[in-house]
Design a protein that fits this description.
single chain, 465 residues, alpha/beta, UDP-N-acetylmuramoyl-L-alanine:D-glutamate ligase, 3 domains, nine-stranded mixed β-sheet, six-stranded mixed β-sheet, cell division
Amino acid sequence: MNEATNNQQSKKSFPSGEGFRKGLRLVILGGGESGVGTALLGKAKGYEVFVSDKGKIKDKYKDVLLNNEIEFEDEQHTESKILSADIVMKSPGIPDKVALIKKIREAGITVVSEIEFASKFTEATLVAITGSNGKTTTATLTHHLLQQDLDVGLAGNIGDSFAKQILEKNHNNYVLEISSFQLDDIIDFKPKIAILTNITPDHLDRYDYKFENYIASKFRVVENQTEDDYFIYDADDEVILEYMKTHQIQSKKLPFSLTRVMEQGAYLDNNNIIITIDNNKITMPTENLALEGKHNVKNAMAASTVAHLLKIRKQTIRESLENFQGVEHRLEHVLKINKVQYINDSKATNVNATYFALESMEAPTVWIVGGVDKGNDYKELFPFVNEKVKAIICLGKDNAKLMDTFGKMVDVIIETEYMNEAVKIAYKLADAGDNVLLSPACASFDLFENYEDRGRQFKNAVRNL
């Protein structure tokens, strides 16, 4: 979706919780976690609800819809039932270029994402986290820091749906991991605290292959904020800084940096994170951080800034940073076998994520890479491959680009379409003291259901060695 479409959409009124009229027809496209959560909340708030999924709805979600007497269909879209909607909540996986979505918009029907719809029914303090990389770790870490002292839910792109949690638990605070696709369909959504971890090219197929459209989409997280709200962002990210030169942001800015002193926000000084908000300064040592790597120091800065804003005690923040166990499929240490460490970074679905993974390797590494290439430019990985990678295993249906790119950089490069075989080859290639790293830099859909399936297959293969 481009900026023009977005701005046009955002001017439309949305039937909110306050101006609520019973009997509005809510059509939900997509019968997954966010769709079914929205259906439950919509029904509870008096909407007439219909769920439609072009694919097959999983049995566990069908059971919920049946038990709650919510009308649904799967493996088809009945246009007459969909175009009779007052509001459509569409799954973030459905692109705007789909003919049905174009028809819905042409009919003047309001299209929203789950986070837009659900936020109408809560007075909670919302912390919204977006970015090309690091958002899952930052969201999970932020939730971990806050939950010691506050009633807080974790939702968005992670865990139970936001809508369902509002219906069943209605926490006082929510940490929301939010993708650009979810932000594309907001209208009034306004987080108290917004975090932008970084912006690198990703998902460009959804943005007409224009990086500027993707950047604008990420910045929608702050578009409804006022001077009473906060914007936490990476001040070392040139893409973010360039955008901010030409676009006014209303909220209070709290940047974080590894390289520069920040009067307001967070910076690194001799292995200490210094956070200053309105002359209130706290210091957090980094030597005992549970998470490794420079990128995780940044994630810790962002999460700690939120905790400081929400008045979490300094001691609680420090202890939580030191005992946080990390996120599954993100630089997850699986097992050490014959003094070789096996690391699952399946969540690295783009080059920038793999950059952070390779940067953090401190031993010779057998690197498992590959999958569905989203127009990747691997140049930024060359220094790490030359310095740290001893062998490459290409795991994908089409490995030609990887073989051409890295074939002359390493002595050993092998291709396979099977995770078990990839792990067995890695076992033979790795020596004591080495790492075996699954960090694909690609989407997973050629051989796996999703990155979670890929990561779990890797872990199972390692355990079966």
